[in-house]
Design goal:
This protein is mainly beta. It is about 10% helix and about 35% strand. The protein has one domain (about 10-70). It has one helix and seven strands; from the N terminus they run βββαββββ. This is Multi-ubiquitin domain-containing protein.
Length: about 80
């Protein structure tokens, strides 16, 4: 008989193409940085299933949704 009361990760957070297990339905930007080992000097973006990007505020709390992923914002310099 399976143990349905077993507590484990309920959510997955995709950061820079890697899925991480997560136990809460929300995550903060500092937690995203720590989990994905992202540098503090680069903005963090949320990408929805339609590939729309949104830059997150440093103090933002994000509700996890299927198909959404996170990463560092890439800046391009002309040279």
């Amino acid at each position: 008989m399976p143990d349905n009361n077993k507590q484990g990760p309920k959510y997955f957070v995709e950061i820079e193409g890697t899925e991480y297990e997560w136990s809460k339905e929300t995550i903060t930007v500092p937690e995203i940085r720590q989990l994905g080992n992202l540098p503090a000097d680069q903005p963090i973006i949320e990408v929805d299933p339609d590939n729309n990007e949104r830059t997150l505020a440093e103090d933002e709390v994000v509700t996890l949704k299927p198909g959404h992923r996170f990463g560092k914002k890439i800046s391009y310099k002309r040279g």
